[in-house]
What we know:
Elements: E1 6-9, E2 26-27, E3 30-31, H1 32-40, E4 47-50, E5 65-66, H2 76-89, E6 94-99, H3 109-116, E7 123-128, E8 134-144, H4 148-156, H5 162-167, E9 172-175, H6 190-199
Parallel strand pairs: 1-4, 1-6, 4-5, 7-9
Antiparallel strand pairs: 2-3, 6-8, 7-8
Cofactor: Mg(2+)
EC number: 2.7.7.77
Keywords: Cytoplasm, GTP-binding, Magnesium, Metal-binding, Molybdenum cofactor biosynthesis, Nucleotide-binding, Nucleotidyltransferase, Transferase
Amino acid sequence: MKRPPAVILAGGLSTRMGGGNKALRMLAGETLLTRVIQRLRPQCAALAINANGDAEQFDTYDLPVIADGFSGFAGPLAGVLAGMEWAASLGADAVVSCSVDTPFVPEDLVHRLREATGRTGIAIAASPDDSGRLRDHPTCGLWPVALQPDLRDALESGLHRIGQFAASYNPGRAVFDSRPRDPFMNLNTPEDLAQAARLV
Length: 200
């Protein structure tokens, strides 16, 4: 099976990080975006960045920048929809999504997601927390482009929770070990960034 394309979700407001563009925050000498690109590029047929606002700030990455098709801030689900539309234009039947604030994303993410694909074609990443309870990470997922109409309807009805949308389709789960560090560690605050720097 042909490798799917992937969209890096970088359209957030970064309010807890103090504003600005989280994708371009530095972690041990490299931007978060660079780190995610380095991990995803070998796994995917093509990459795109989902971001809103000035696309020129990503010029040095030489990747397509696709904006949400919804006004205002519609969250990562709008980025997934933009990714589906872009992937469909490439002739792909599915797209992988990955949040830009997960710089330790697994180097076998795409392979494992494809192996875990559920009956409806969706697969999401998951890992156990400190208590052993499984936590879903739906921003890192595999989405069939055929779900575009359903996702657009959900967004137009006011649904913005990516996990809620995925759960309604009984997704498959690719479970990753969270030791010695959780590969889906989200960097939402300056303190998270400092902790990640100690782990690099």
